[in-house]
Amino acid sequence: MNTVKGSLYVLFQSYKKQIITFWCILYSIILFSLFIDTFFELHTYSFSIMISIPVYIFSGVMSAKLLNKTLSYFLRLGLCRLQFMLNVGIFLICWSLVGAFIIGCTQKIITSVSNIFIIHPILLFNNSPSFFQTMALDTVLLLFFLTAGLLLNVVFYRLGFIGGYSFVGLLGLITIFTIIFKWYSSLFDLLSNISTFTLLSILLVLSVLLYSIITMAIRNASVNPA
């Protein structure tokens, strides 16, 4: 238990500066938006803001640097790779829960003091979601983005820049073909016909599968990146 607590503390300290900077910038934008909303309310104008998506992207970018920042340090302390991945998994779950709670509370405060419309992915499935429904979706999406970012980190860590950028290029090609042949329309049709619970279950299973792949890839990883 002490090892887990110590690992969580070290992992948090590794990202403390970036997390504080990000939330300060985000809240500055929110406060500015509230000021603008108050001003334009006199002229019957309204506008929308998005809080959740920037947090998802930030989380994914941060997790894409995790191995380079912490793996060698923990291995030097005597942790095996499996212990490291277990502690990282707990850290990512905590990150997702805390991030989702902050997003939910922030949105609740904004809607209670202003007429700003909050853009959120859950509105695709539910026009009047509860706080807990929003938090559940944010938690699972944050966990998915964190896991996806960590997977990208593993690819660069194991295969180097050439292998990593080749993987990114392959993803880019898949995206281009998806747009050209309009494969995304089938995906949108599928998403529009499933419930929120089903979507949460799919994303959670994907996150677990991705993390299992990451754990297997790390088992024989070198202390130093390729």
Please tell me about this protein's structure.
- With 226 residues, the chain is an all-alpha fold.
- The chain is 78% helix and 3% strand.
- The chain has seven helices and two strands; from the N terminus they run αβαααβααα.
- The protein has a two-stranded parallel sheet.
- Helix 2 packs across helix 5 (131-180) and helix 4 (81-113) packs across helix 5 (131-180).
- The chain starts with a helix and ends in an 8-residue tail after the last helix.
Main traits of this protein?
mainly alpha, single chain, about 230 residues, about 5% strand, globular
Give a quick rundown of the structure.
This protein is mostly helical and 226 residues long. Helices cover 78% and strands 3% of the residues.
Strand arrangement within the widest β-sheet reads 1-2
Low-confidence stretches: none
Largest sheet: 2 strands, parallel
SSE arrangement, N to C: HEHHHEHHH
First CA to last CA: what distance?
32 Å
Give the mean pLDDT: 86
Strand content: under 5%
**Number of helical stretches of at least 4 residues:** 7
Tell me the total number of β-strands.
2
Tell me the layout of helices and strands.
Blueprint: H1 2-40, E1 48-50, H2 52-63, H3 66-76, H4 81-113, E2 117-119, H5 131-180, H6 184-192, H7 196-218
Parallel strand pairs: 1-2
Helix pairs in contact: 1-4, 2-5, 4-5, 5-7
